[in-house]
């Protein structure tokens, strides 16, 4: 008797942007790019994330009700990359990180906002419990690429495209060359290549209209990244950074692009739920129902 294949349900959200009140920032932190970010928050950007804690709590309820098997977050937990913000963000999403091997994440550019002291390592310190790598031999710097093998049929490959941007008007990202080379190698690994493959990173390699993002805001080496993804036989590319939930058919690739948008930004709230069975993907967008105060499949 043939074994019945189980449907794996995956929740993909992003850009939750937890921020603390500006008055709690130490004065020394203002003498950096954070000054510009803090001014933007004071000018009104933060109001779009006033209900972040409430919405994350609702997302946790949604996850439990939908019997999700795996949770993916594609970065930007915070607004200014403060250690206190990262701690609060981890506390808020911690129910989604149980068990830790069923949660996969990467940092966003806001999580390593500036290049100061140990800022590049704060994310890893807070989220170390979910940065387990099933194939650590492919690591080419820190935890990346991070590979998670899910059951017998799915692989998740996380590459880190976020970097500090000391110049205030720059918010672009880049996947280091050594990570791209490792990605190319792991896609040929017999333990991976026949599975349904999710490749996740923070930056969107293409916008909803199919065009590249701007040089100051987008993924600098998006073309090289997509070239490596051509080796995927069956899979999807997952990202965040753009606060819009969208799906894009990538011409010439066997994997479509899914941007989760922001799960918590006022009037833009959204994320994806994927169902994978026998290497087939069904993707359903989820949106915030303001009247009911919950997430729903219908906008």
What would your notes on this structure say?
This protein has 299 residues and is of the alpha/beta class. The chain has one domain (8-296): Metallo-dependent phosphatases (Purple Acid Phosphatase, chain A, domain 2), CATH 3.60.21. It contains 6 helices and 12 strands. The chain has a 6-stranded mixed sheet. Strands 4-5-6-7-9-8 form a 6-stranded mixed sheet, with no helix packed on it. The longest helix has 15 residues, at 52-66. The protein is globular.
Count the domains. 1
Largest sheet: 6 strands, mixed
Q: List SSEs in N-to-C order.
A: EHHEHEHEEHEHEEEEEE
Report the CATH architecture: 4-Layer Sandwich
Rg, rounded, reads: 18 Å
Uncertain spans: 22-39
Please estimate the helix content: 10-25%
Looking at the chains present, what oligomeric state does this protein adopt?
single chain
**CATH homologous superfamily placement:** Metallo-dependent phosphatases
Q: How confident overall, as mean pLDDT?
A: 89
Beta-strand residue percentage: 15-25%
Overall outline:
globular
- Classified by CATH, the class is Alpha Beta
By CATH, the topology is Purple Acid Phosphatase, chain A, domain 2
For the largest beta sheet, what order do the strands appear in spatially? 3-2-1-10-11-12
How many beta-strand elements?
Answer: 12
Assign the structural class, choosing from mainly alpha, mainly beta, alpha/beta, alpha+beta, or little secondary structure: alpha/beta
Total helical segments? 6
End-to-end distance: 42 Å
